[in-house]
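Supplementary Text 2. Reproducibility record for the structural model of the 215-residue chain.

All settings were left at their defaults, and a single model was retained for analysis rather than an ensemble. We include the record here because the model underlies the residue-level annotations in Supplementary Table 4.
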Amino acid sequence: MSLKVAQSFARVLYEQLLAQTQPASAVFNPPKVFTRAKVHSPESTFGQLAEDMYLAEKARTERSEFARGSLQVLRNRLDAHILPRWRDMPMAQVGYPQLMAFLQDMSVDMSTITLSQYFVAISKVFNHAFRMGVIKTTPEFPKVKIKTQSREAFTPTEYWRILRTARSLRGNPPPLIASGHCVKITNSFTATTTCRPIWLGPWVSWSTALFGPAI
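Retained model, structure tokens:
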């Protein structure tokens, strides 16, 4: 008997012995009901593909591949403005003109960041439709230039003043900033008024030490 035949015989014998010694709970039991693969036609609507895409993203969430918060944001955006616009429209009929009209309408109330995030959700639907064979290609999307407002920077001199002030306050609690904040407590027996300074945090203390009081 050759070596390969002996190895094959030993492997089969080992698997049989292993199956006999395994507990019943360790044996894989396939589910009785399987998820049927959805087949879409070229007439499938945008809403059908969107819901199908959402279920795929939900499955990713269950596999910890997609955050639950992001899934909820996706659901909200679909329900808010995307599905009411194209739910019953055939997927193949949604293209650049429709996306451009969406951009023009939503630009009135949305920032460029929000618009770009909506287009991310819409692109998920198109990519899913492409993978399912409903559309032959994904359309071109309108360009959205994201406008960001950068924080004003300190001058080198101001940075040095911040550093020196921080070092001087190191190890000391930030001082209280006195103000005229008073609380009047009244009950059936007494009426008292208590005035106390407000603690506004170390950042206000540093700002006061650097640039003078702001209040």
